[in-house]
Amino acid sequence: MLHFAVAGSPLSTPAPGGTVEGIKQSSELGINALEIEWVQRVPDAPKRMAEIKAVSKALNVTLTVHAPYFVNLNAKEPEKLEASKKRILKALEMAELAGAKSVCVHPAFYLGMEPDIAFTNVQKATAEIMQKKPKLFPSVNLAYETMGKGTQFGTLEEVLKISKEFDIYPCVDIAHLHARTNGGYNSTKEFNEVFDVYEKYLGKKSLKNMHLHYSGIEYTAKGERRHLVLKKSDAKWKEYLKVLKKRQIEGVLVCESPNLEEDTILLQNNYAKLA
Ligand SMILES: [Zn+2]
Fold it and tell me: Among 75, 105, 124, 137, which has the minimal tally of Cβ within 10 Å of its Cβ?
Protein backbone atom coordinates (compact mmCIF):
# COMPACT_ATOMS: atom_id res chain seq x y z
CA MET A 1 0.00 0.00 0.00
CA LEU A 2 1.07 3.57 -0.69
CA HIS A 3 0.48 5.88 2.29
CA PHE A 4 0.13 9.62 1.75
CA ALA A 5 1.77 11.44 4.64
CA VAL A 6 1.36 15.00 5.82
CA ALA A 7 4.67 16.81 6.45
CA GLY A 8 4.27 17.67 10.13
CA SER A 9 1.15 18.27 12.17
CA PRO A 10 -1.76 19.41 9.95
CA LEU A 11 -2.42 23.16 9.94
CA SER A 12 -5.87 22.42 11.34
CA THR A 13 -4.46 20.69 14.45
CA PRO A 14 -6.09 22.20 17.56
CA ALA A 15 -3.86 24.26 19.87
CA PRO A 16 -1.39 23.70 21.47
CA GLY A 17 -0.51 21.29 18.66
CA GLY A 18 2.43 18.94 18.91
CA THR A 19 3.06 15.56 17.31
CA VAL A 20 0.55 13.55 19.33
CA GLU A 21 -2.26 16.01 18.53
CA GLY A 22 -1.03 16.12 14.92
CA ILE A 23 -1.34 12.35 14.60
CA LYS A 24 -4.88 12.47 16.01
CA GLN A 25 -5.86 15.29 13.65
CA SER A 26 -4.37 13.46 10.63
CA SER A 27 -6.37 10.40 11.48
CA GLU A 28 -9.48 12.56 11.90
CA LEU A 29 -8.90 13.91 8.36
CA GLY A 30 -8.51 10.43 6.91
CA ILE A 31 -4.73 10.73 6.49
CA ASN A 32 -2.93 7.61 7.67
CA ALA A 33 0.72 8.73 7.69
CA LEU A 34 2.75 11.64 9.05
CA GLU A 35 6.36 12.77 8.80
CA ILE A 36 7.60 14.23 12.08
CA GLU A 37 9.53 17.42 11.32
CA TRP A 38 12.57 17.58 13.58
CA VAL A 39 14.20 19.95 11.11
CA GLN A 40 15.49 22.43 13.70
CA ARG A 41 16.29 20.04 16.52
CA VAL A 42 15.56 16.53 17.76
CA PRO A 43 13.85 16.27 21.15
CA ASP A 44 15.68 14.05 23.60
CA ALA A 45 12.45 12.77 25.12
CA PRO A 46 12.01 8.98 25.34
CA LYS A 47 8.74 9.31 27.30
CA ARG A 48 7.17 11.51 24.68
CA MET A 49 8.35 9.05 22.01
CA ALA A 50 6.52 6.24 23.79
CA GLU A 51 3.37 8.35 23.73
CA ILE A 52 3.78 9.08 20.00
CA LYS A 53 4.29 5.39 19.35
CA ALA A 54 1.21 4.36 21.32
CA VAL A 55 -1.08 6.91 19.63
CA SER A 56 0.20 6.17 16.13
CA LYS A 57 -0.22 2.41 16.66
CA ALA A 58 -3.72 2.82 18.08
CA LEU A 59 -4.82 5.02 15.17
CA ASN A 60 -2.82 3.07 12.59
CA VAL A 61 -0.85 6.12 11.41
CA THR A 62 2.49 5.27 9.76
CA LEU A 63 5.35 7.54 10.84
CA THR A 64 8.52 8.80 9.20
CA VAL A 65 10.91 11.51 10.43
CA HIS A 66 12.75 14.43 8.88
CA ALA A 67 16.16 14.97 10.53
CA PRO A 68 17.63 18.47 11.17
CA TYR A 69 18.71 20.59 8.20
CA PHE A 70 21.90 21.57 10.01
CA VAL A 71 23.95 18.62 8.80
CA ASN A 72 26.97 18.28 6.53
CA LEU A 73 28.67 14.90 6.34
CA ASN A 74 31.26 16.51 4.09
CA ALA A 75 32.18 19.21 6.62
CA LYS A 76 35.87 20.14 6.69
CA GLU A 77 35.95 20.95 10.41
CA PRO A 78 35.98 17.81 12.59
CA GLU A 79 33.63 19.38 15.15
CA LYS A 80 31.04 20.18 12.47
CA LEU A 81 31.24 16.64 11.16
CA GLU A 82 30.86 15.18 14.65
CA ALA A 83 27.87 17.44 15.38
CA SER A 84 26.27 16.34 12.10
CA LYS A 85 26.65 12.65 12.90
CA LYS A 86 25.30 13.25 16.40
CA ARG A 87 22.17 15.00 15.10
CA ILE A 88 21.49 12.19 12.65
CA LEU A 89 22.03 9.52 15.30
CA LYS A 90 19.73 11.31 17.75
CA ALA A 91 17.02 11.51 15.09
CA LEU A 92 17.42 7.80 14.32
CA GLU A 93 17.38 6.86 17.99
CA MET A 94 14.25 8.90 18.78
CA ALA A 95 12.59 7.62 15.59
CA GLU A 96 13.16 4.08 16.81
CA LEU A 97 11.48 4.91 20.13
CA ALA A 98 8.59 6.65 18.35
CA GLY A 99 8.01 3.67 16.06
CA ALA A 100 8.88 5.59 12.88
CA LYS A 101 10.12 3.53 9.94
CA SER A 102 12.49 5.85 8.09
CA VAL A 103 14.42 9.07 8.77
CA CYS A 104 15.12 11.43 5.91
CA VAL A 105 18.45 13.27 6.01
CA HIS A 106 19.95 16.02 3.82
CA PRO A 107 23.40 14.45 3.67
CA ALA A 108 25.91 17.12 2.66
CA PHE A 109 27.14 20.09 0.66
CA TYR A 110 29.96 19.75 -1.84
CA LEU A 111 31.67 22.96 -0.61
CA GLY A 112 33.33 23.26 -4.00
CA MET A 113 34.89 19.79 -3.78
CA GLU A 114 34.74 17.20 -6.51
CA PRO A 115 31.58 15.10 -6.06
CA ASP A 116 33.78 11.97 -5.79
CA ILE A 117 35.61 13.36 -2.78
CA ALA A 118 32.37 14.41 -1.12
CA PHE A 119 31.05 10.93 -1.79
CA THR A 120 33.99 9.32 -0.03
CA ASN A 121 33.50 11.60 2.97
CA VAL A 122 29.76 10.86 3.18
CA GLN A 123 30.57 7.16 2.83
CA LYS A 124 32.98 7.27 5.74
CA ALA A 125 30.52 9.11 7.99
CA THR A 126 27.74 6.71 6.99
CA ALA A 127 29.87 3.72 7.98
CA GLU A 128 30.29 5.26 11.43
CA ILE A 129 26.58 5.98 11.78
CA MET A 130 25.64 2.47 10.63
CA GLN A 131 27.90 0.88 13.25
CA LYS A 132 25.38 2.09 15.83
CA LYS A 133 22.38 0.62 14.02
CA PRO A 134 22.04 -2.67 15.97
CA LYS A 135 21.93 -0.86 19.28
CA LEU A 136 20.30 2.48 18.53
CA PHE A 137 18.01 2.11 15.53
CA PRO A 138 17.60 -1.56 14.54
CA SER A 139 14.28 -1.09 12.75
CA VAL A 140 14.69 2.41 11.30
CA ASN A 141 15.94 3.21 7.82
CA LEU A 142 18.48 5.99 7.17
CA ALA A 143 17.15 7.76 4.08
CA TYR A 144 19.44 10.17 2.27
CA GLU A 145 17.38 12.60 0.27
CA THR A 146 17.74 13.68 -3.36
CA MET A 147 18.44 17.41 -3.08
CA GLY A 148 17.20 20.47 -4.94
CA LYS A 149 20.36 22.52 -5.42
CA GLY A 150 23.48 21.85 -7.44
CA THR A 151 25.63 22.78 -4.42
CA GLN A 152 24.11 19.93 -2.40
CA PHE A 153 25.25 16.33 -2.40
CA GLY A 154 22.25 14.27 -3.43
CA THR A 155 21.74 13.40 -7.07
CA LEU A 156 19.59 10.34 -7.62
CA GLU A 157 22.64 8.25 -8.50
CA GLU A 158 24.59 9.43 -5.45
CA VAL A 159 21.91 8.54 -2.93
CA LEU A 160 21.21 5.21 -4.63
CA LYS A 161 24.86 4.24 -4.80
CA ILE A 162 25.45 4.93 -1.13
CA SER A 163 22.16 3.30 -0.10
CA LYS A 164 23.01 0.12 -1.96
CA GLU A 165 26.34 -0.07 -0.23
CA PHE A 166 24.82 0.16 3.26
CA ASP A 167 21.62 -1.76 2.58
CA ILE A 168 19.40 1.25 3.24
CA TYR A 169 17.00 3.15 0.94
CA PRO A 170 16.95 6.84 0.04
CA CYS A 171 14.22 9.47 0.21
CA VAL A 172 13.39 10.28 -3.39
CA ASP A 173 12.14 13.84 -3.75
CA ILE A 174 11.05 14.29 -7.36
CA ALA A 175 10.32 18.00 -6.77
CA HIS A 176 13.95 18.49 -5.73
CA LEU A 177 15.19 16.69 -8.83
CA HIS A 178 12.82 18.82 -10.91
CA ALA A 179 14.29 22.02 -9.40
CA ARG A 180 17.88 20.81 -9.54
CA THR A 181 17.63 20.13 -13.26
CA ASN A 182 15.64 23.28 -14.02
CA GLY A 183 12.47 21.63 -15.15
CA GLY A 184 13.42 18.00 -15.72
CA TYR A 185 11.84 15.02 -13.95
CA ASN A 186 8.32 16.20 -14.72
CA SER A 187 6.86 13.79 -17.26
CA THR A 188 5.57 10.24 -17.32
CA LYS A 189 8.72 9.15 -19.13
CA GLU A 190 11.02 10.82 -16.60
CA PHE A 191 9.06 9.57 -13.58
CA ASN A 192 9.38 6.07 -14.96
CA GLU A 193 13.10 6.53 -15.50
CA VAL A 194 13.52 7.41 -11.81
CA PHE A 195 11.88 4.16 -10.75
CA ASP A 196 13.84 2.23 -13.38
CA VAL A 197 17.15 3.53 -12.01
CA TYR A 198 15.99 2.96 -8.44
CA GLU A 199 15.08 -0.62 -9.24
CA LYS A 200 18.37 -1.16 -11.05
CA TYR A 201 20.27 -0.22 -7.89
CA LEU A 202 18.10 -1.62 -5.13
CA GLY A 203 16.14 -4.43 -6.78
CA LYS A 204 12.52 -4.91 -7.80
CA LYS A 205 11.30 -5.51 -4.26
CA SER A 206 12.61 -2.11 -3.17
CA LEU A 207 9.74 -0.40 -5.02
CA LYS A 208 7.37 -1.91 -2.45
CA ASN A 209 8.83 0.05 0.44
CA MET A 210 9.78 3.56 -0.61
CA HIS A 211 10.23 6.88 1.18
CA LEU A 212 9.09 9.61 -1.22
CA HIS A 213 8.71 13.37 -0.93
CA TYR A 214 6.61 15.47 -3.28
CA SER A 215 5.27 19.00 -3.67
CA GLY A 216 5.15 21.85 -6.13
CA ILE A 217 8.40 23.78 -6.30
CA GLU A 218 9.76 27.14 -7.43
CA TYR A 219 13.27 27.15 -8.88
CA THR A 220 15.91 29.28 -10.53
CA ALA A 221 19.11 28.46 -12.39
CA LYS A 222 20.58 27.60 -8.97
CA GLY A 223 17.84 25.07 -8.28
CA GLU A 224 15.26 24.96 -5.52
CA ARG A 225 13.86 28.24 -4.23
CA ARG A 226 10.83 27.17 -2.19
CA HIS A 227 8.06 24.62 -2.06
CA LEU A 228 4.73 25.54 -3.64
CA VAL A 229 1.15 24.36 -3.46
CA LEU A 230 0.67 21.80 -6.25
CA LYS A 231 -1.97 23.75 -8.18
CA LYS A 232 0.21 26.90 -8.16
CA SER A 233 3.21 25.04 -9.56
CA ASP A 234 4.25 23.42 -12.83
CA ALA A 235 4.33 19.95 -11.20
CA LYS A 236 2.69 17.29 -13.35
CA TRP A 237 1.25 15.70 -10.25
CA LYS A 238 -1.59 13.85 -11.95
CA GLU A 239 0.89 12.15 -14.29
CA TYR A 240 3.08 11.32 -11.31
CA LEU A 241 0.17 9.70 -9.47
CA LYS A 242 -0.60 7.60 -12.54
CA VAL A 243 2.96 6.30 -12.66
CA LEU A 244 2.87 5.50 -8.92
CA LYS A 245 -0.37 3.59 -9.42
CA LYS A 246 0.65 1.81 -12.60
CA ARG A 247 3.95 0.59 -11.14
CA GLN A 248 2.26 -0.28 -7.86
CA ILE A 249 4.77 1.69 -5.84
CA GLU A 250 4.34 1.16 -2.08
CA GLY A 251 5.64 2.85 1.05
CA VAL A 252 5.17 6.45 2.18
CA LEU A 253 4.79 9.54 0.01
CA VAL A 254 5.18 12.67 2.12
CA CYS A 255 3.45 15.71 0.66
CA GLU A 256 5.61 18.76 1.44
CA SER A 257 3.32 21.45 0.04
CA PRO A 258 2.99 24.55 2.24
CA ASN A 259 -0.73 23.87 2.67
CA LEU A 260 0.13 20.49 4.29
CA GLU A 261 -3.06 18.46 4.66
CA GLU A 262 -4.87 20.11 1.75
CA ASP A 263 -2.45 18.83 -0.91
CA THR A 264 -1.94 15.54 0.95
CA ILE A 265 -5.68 14.91 0.68
CA LEU A 266 -5.69 16.14 -2.94
CA LEU A 267 -3.03 13.56 -3.84
CA GLN A 268 -4.64 10.82 -1.81
CA ASN A 269 -8.10 11.37 -3.32
CA ASN A 270 -6.85 11.59 -6.88
CA TYR A 271 -4.73 8.49 -6.40
CA ALA A 272 -7.74 6.59 -5.02
CA LYS A 273 -9.78 7.48 -8.11
CA LEU A 274 -7.24 5.88 -10.46
CA ALA A 275 -8.18 2.49 -11.79
ZN1 LIG B 1 14.10 17.30 3.04
Answer: 124
Burial 164-194 (b: 16+ CB within 10 A, else e): beeebbbbbbbbbbbbbbeeebbeeebbeeb
Interval between CA 56 and ligand 1 midpoint (Å): 22
CATH number of 2-273: 3.20.20.150
Distance from the alpha carbon of residue 107 to the mean position of ligand 1, in angstroms: 10
What's the pLDDT tens digit per position in 125-150? 999 999 999 999 999 999 999 999 99
For residue 275, pLDDT over 90 is answered with: no
Q: Enter the pTM of the model.
A: 0.97
What residue segments make up the domains of the chain, in order of their start?
A: 2-273
275 CA from centroid of ligand 1 (Å): 31
Q: Which residues surround ligand 1, an ion (CB under 5 A)?
A: 145
